[in-house]
Amino acid sequence: MDNKFNPKRLSLARQRRRLTGKGLAQAAGLSAMAVSRLENGLSDPDNATISALASALRYPAAFFFADDPDELDTASVSFRSLTKMSAKEKAAAQAAGILGLEISDWLEKEFRLPEADFVDLSYEANPEAAAKAVRTYWGLGEKPITNMLGLLEVKGVRVFSLSEATKNVDAFSFWRDERPFIFLNNFKTAERSIFDSAHELAHLVMHRHAGTQPGDQPSRIAEREADGFASAFLMPANDVRSRLPRFITVDVILKAKARWRVSAMALAYRAHRLGLMTDWQYKSACIELGRRGYRTDEPNGVERETSAVWRKVLAALWSERTTRDEIAAKVNLPPDELEGLIGGLVGPAVRPERASNPPKLRLA
């Protein structure tokens, strides 16, 4: 290989595998000091060491010889549940974001995707008003959003999944130049993923220039604003008022929630905020929903949304005899990392007929 070993890529792969330097050293049969010197660029590995590191991390050796990875501006990345996330979980999620950028760069070269179509509401502190403004800008009226993921993709958001297998990582979003990105943890219910999508949309339109520093007051305010935006965006006030009866029971909530594709708890909260349920009714409904298992799950929930962009991309590449493993090889990633970043969005493998001379796909 002509390029030099890149120590930043060694750190990136180690973070994705949630290993400490000591843990990587043990897995690769090296000393902790040797791994530390490699990650700090103080020594160059020989071929045997590179092979041991690649094997321990389950990454292709070519990954370690590519250019410096992009660095996420952590102040501009909106992480949720920061108090629940361990340092390893946060580092792994951020590293997933960096790998997502590399996949996105490759995708932009191969396909023409929708441009970002966003309104800047960084001046707006009222989530209800912000949600109305976005709906007006996109011409959505007050009808339910039938496919939140599809809407985001049409408006130019690059959406990836997170395979973190933990509820401590909800979702995160950020802007790179003029391109919005959202990473969703599909470990949650379909309804929670839809709400997370709307929550991250709020950060993209309301907090683009603000940043959210972990643990400080602005971060907590931004999270409350994003929750309020998501609630109002998915469940417009006039539509909810016109559809719910005067006396709202738990059974009414369970029947009505399918219209807005939200969780029972989210609809109960919205109804209470709109003054359609008294404090006592809301408290009683939460207790009953919890008793029926709706606090941590969503029995008989809606179907999980999938990515139209990624399904079309994979179908087009398959028609050119390109498999997912070959796509992973093109971006120097192990197949499981590519699968983690897009697999949760596309569902079962797409295998249409292969064309002898397939046309170049354009997705705009």
Automatic annotation (TrEMBL):
InterPro entries xref list: Cro/C1-type_HTH, IrrE_HExxH, Lambda_DNA-bd_dom_sf, Rad_response_metalloprotease
PROSITE patterns attached to this UniProt entry: HTH_CROC1
Domain HTH cro/C1-type: 10-64
Protein name from the UniProt record: Zn-dependent peptidase ImmA (M78 family)/DNA-binding XRE family transcriptional regulator
SUPFAM superfamilies cross-referenced by the UniProt entry: lambda repressor-like DNA-binding domains
Family to which this protein belongs: Belongs to the short-chain fatty acyl-CoA assimilation regulator (ScfR) family.
UniProt superkingdom: Bacteria
